[in-house]
Amino acid sequence: MKHFDYIIIGGGIAGLISAYIFREYNTLLLDKKGILEGASSAAGAFLFPKISKKSSYTDFINNSILAAFTFYKDIGIDTHKKGVLLLPRDERDIKKFKEYEKYIKLPFEKKEGGFFFEDGGFIEVDEVREKIEVPFFKEKVELIKKEGNFWKVNDFFAKNVILATGYESLIDIPYIQIRPIWGERIEINGKWEDNLNFYYHKNCSVAEIQNKLRIGATHKRNCLECKINEEEAFELIEKAKEIINIEKFEIDNIKGGFRAASVDYFPVVGEVIDVDKTLSLQPKIVKGEIPKQLVYKKGLYIINGMGGRGFSNAVMCAKMLKNYIENHRNLGKIDTKRLFIKWARKEGEKYLKKLKEKNVKSGKSY
Known about the structure:
By secondary structure, this protein is an alpha/beta fold. Helix content is 30%, strand content 30%.
C-alpha cells in the first residue's frame, strides 16, 4: 500500500499548482485524463486585471494576477507581458468605466476609450505542463473513503486529500455548488490590422501570437450540451471584430472545455465541513444563528471554482490553502464556510429534517 501526506485529485491548473505548492510533502497528483487536459487545455490563460466599483472580488482578482506574474517568472515560465487594453462593451459600459476609474488601484493609462494596464500577459499551457513537474499518476478515482486516520483513494492512502475536480463532483458536498461554464480558445490565420503591440479585452480577449490571432472567452453558463464546433468559433470571431479589423481569416485551431465557477464567483478553498455533524450539534444554524463551531471532515480539503481566471487564481488559492493548513491563517472570502452558512439558512431546514428521519431509521445519533 502506498501512503502519502497529500493526494490531490484533479490535474487541471488548480490541482497542478497545488501539487507544486505542496511539493515539500510526499504528494501525489491524480487525474483520469492527464495534466492540464479538459478545461485547462482550452484556456486562453490570459493574465488580465479586472476593473469595477470598489469590490473585494476585484481586489482578490488583481492581487492574484500580481502573485501569478511573480510565481511564473520565478519558475522560468514566460508570461508574455505586453500589457492589456480593457475596452467598454457598449454605451452602458462607457458610463461604468467613468465610475470605475476612481477605484482602480493598479497603474494604468487611458487609451482608445479604455484603460491600458502594463500588467497584462498570458501563459502557454504547454509550457506550464512542461516546466511544472510533480509526482503524477493517471487513474480515474473510483473510491474516496476515510479509514482510521487515513483517506483511502482507490488503492492509495493519504493523511490529507485535496479535491481539485472542477465542475465534476466525486463527493457529495451539498453546500458547494460548482457551475460549469463553457469556454473556448481559438486561433486563426489571416489578415488583420498591423501587429498588435499589446492585448485587448472587450467581449473576448484577443492577442497576436506568432502571426496568429488567439481569441478566448468564457461565455456560456450551465451549458452541459456545449461542445467544440465552428458555429461557436465564428461567434467569438465576430466578437473579436468589435475590437480589431479582421479582413480575412481561416480557423487554425479550436479548443473548448467546462470551467468551474462558484455561485458567488469567488474560488472555493478550505477544509470540507461535515454537514451532518455540524447541523446535528447546532440545528439553530438553519434559523440564522451564527455557528459557534464548525465540524470538519478532518484531512479533506477543496480548491475549486477558479472560473475563467484559473491560471492566476490557482496560484493565490493554493498558497492560501497551504498557509491555512500549516498556520491556521484565515482564508477570508474564499473559505468554504461562507457557502455553508448561506446554504444552511436556505436549504438547511429541509436537509436537517431528512437527516433526522434517516438517523431515526438507522438508530444513529451524534
